[in-house]
């Protein structure tokens, strides 16, 4: 019979995908289910980007490219870091892969040995922990306080570091909370890292361009040049440019690390798609004006969702600085009874109730390592959000 390798034995299929599957099954039975689970913008890839891909295909850019990104692709990434972050990287400090996820996978596979530890603040994007486990290492989950916007504190970091710590993982703006770190938030953490030379920092900046109000995005390597030889900055085109399906992500960090990451990639996928690289070059170097328009659209939707959730007795939703998720507390719902006499005992119960009673799918905080909360994505149309929110309000009001 089939026996999975030990390295994947404790890794399940993503619960988010399972929730999507339940919703799809209910739809098939004729239920009108609204899924607020999406981890991707509902916008389309910009036309100019599609055109660039199409031109590349017709030009015959259909062959293998350089392993971790074509020279033109790496130049585009260099330009992005100069323009957006004021950072100058050389070509051998840049790595391009099939999504930010593959960049993170390459980095952990290239650096982690059994027994090594990676500090992951929670709530967290679950792939971090699973990639760390696949690499044979140990994710050290550190629970961050909701009252501190789920930000890691210097004290918590100091206490989590051991001689086995290899990496700290930070993600700003965050999936699932939408929390973002200011320079003042980062500073004490970077000071701790300066004192622990064995610890590297992986900064996942994938939501960089989706920030609101007057929040000014900053990235750690820009704040502390002394840490430049142990920071990997990860980013990609998926979220900013609505290009999730094209699969292009990139990283910038020390050349020796980038070289080791290329070894991993050379024996798994080889180069990222040549056509997708052509598309990503256009995204990164073409006009950037639609980013602001899309940001404003997301901001209006964020406010719509946050205000509607806070108007419901029993829910409390902070207003996130970025990304396209809300992460609300449902603590006030615990102990309440459904119309058929079932008790809401957890965020999981609450989400199951919303799916059954309101036909709205959201993701329990337990999936991201924090209870009792739930994540709702607002990367859906206004009409869909309006309908989902009024259904949620109705279902919540029916709880006793
Ligand atoms: N990092 C975070 C925090 C994400 O939420 C996601 C996607 O959901 C990724 C990375 C992966 O993005 P990509 O599509 O570039 O692999």
Summarize it.
It is an enzyme of class 2 (transferase). The protein is α/β, with parallel strands linked by helices.
Structure description:
The structure is a single chain. The protein has helices at about 5-10, 15-30, 45-60, 70-85, 100-110, 125-135, 155-160, 185-195, 220-225, 255-265, 275-285, 290-310, 345-360, 380-395, and strands at about 35, 95, 115-120, 140-145, 165-170, 200-205, 230-235, 250, 325-330, 360, 365, 375. The mean pLDDT is about 95. The chain is an alpha/beta fold. It is globular and about 60 Å long. The chain folds into two domains: about 5-45 and about 290-395, Aspartate Aminotransferase, domain 1 (Alpha-Beta Complex); about 50-285, Aspartate Aminotransferase, domain 2, CATH 3.40.640. The chain binds pyridoxal-5'-phosphate.
